[in-house]
Amino acid sequence: MATVTIKINTRTKKTQHLFGLISEIAKNDKNVEIIEGDESPYNEEFVNEIIKSRASKGKVIKTEDLWK
Hints:
single chain, mainly alpha, 41% helix, elongated
C-alpha cells in the first residue's frame, strides 16, 4: 500500500469536489483511508509565548530613555 499526502485548499469548487470524491471513495472502500492532520509547524512553547505577549499590556518607554 502507498501513502500519498495531499494538501487541499477547500475554498475552491474544484478542490471541494476533489475532496468530496476522495471522501466518498474512502466511505465505500476499506483500502482508502483519510487521515487528517493539522499539525502546526511552530514550536508550541514559542506560540504560547506569543499568545502571552499579546495578552499583556506592554511597557511604555520614553524615547529619551530608549538607549539607556
